[in-house]
Amino acid sequence: MSIAIFVLMEIECFFLLRPPTTPVFSRSLFPPSNQPNNKIHRCSKITAKTNFHQDDGHDNLFFQSAITRASYRFRETLRSEPLFVDPYAGCFAPPELELNENLSQNLHHYCIGTRFIDDQLLSATKGVDGAKQVVMFTDGMDTRAYRLKWPSSTVIYDVSPQAVFKKASQKLQDVGAKIPRGCLLLHVPLESSDMQQLLCDKGFSGSRPSIWVFQGFPVTNLAHFKDILFMVSSLAMKGCLFLGELPVWLTETQMGIKSTVEKWMYDIFMSYGFRVRIIGYDEVAKNLGQTHVDGDSDCLLFVAEHLRFSDDEMEIWRRQFQRVEEEGDEEGFEEL
């Protein structure tokens, strides 16, 4: 008979079960798994204390959704062979987080998507020619800026709810979390009246490579997501990637009838200049050597390539064309 072990932990971000895993660099959509075989002691229940209490007024939907995702990352970190290690997820764990005895077997779709996105980010940003602008639409508690090994000079823009990001950043700062040397994290509040302009004001350039991620962002409806597609299409250079997890409920048409998902995705994304591909969670899990996946996902994992020029690229072409025309006019005038 197994004996249940109850552990009471005051979660701090220096609570590291192991050092973060070495990132996998690959341009393939399915890089080979390279996880260490580190083992941890399993327990039937872990209770984690956190500073996010309901009496602080942080029990709104944004906070609760972000805390739920952080809990998934925390559970994944505690697995004997995790897909990734998030040493900071425990900082946001709910007051009582229960982990069952099948912890090492359970695998959540969100964690599969997180590992897939991690690999794509590291692949796209590596090397001299890699994208050094990373724009992430998140829930405000995303820890990638701290836990991934970013190349020097990478600028990370986190677009998320102001209150969640502010509280999470303070907690991370309190426990000593730091951005990799030579990198920069900038926040763009979800509540901004003009997120596109604010991104540019903070230094984003549509004439330099970038990669865009959508995971956990509290999109309200299809029109809201279309606004995001329009913004990404305006700012991202041709060939840049936009990837992440799209809520399944966005695919629902009138009267709750679902359209063909592939066609719906193709039509929506192509109308903004993106060629999209839906990635199966099972396919990703299989390539990572995983088999036990919990239930059905409420999101669609996708990767989209931008096929249009950004506004900045078009402006550069316009100026060059104008200069050539002006030089031609001057030469013609001299001949006369």
From TrEMBL:
GO terms for biological process: methylation. The keyword Transferase applies. One of its GO terms (molecular function) is methyltransferase activity. Coiled coil: none annotated. It holds the Pfam family LCM. Keywords: Methyltransferase, Transferase. The lineage of its organism: Eukaryota, Viridiplantae, Streptophyta, Embryophyta, Tracheophyta. This is S-adenosyl-L-methionine-dependent methyltransferase. The keyword Transferase applies. It comes from the Eukaryota.
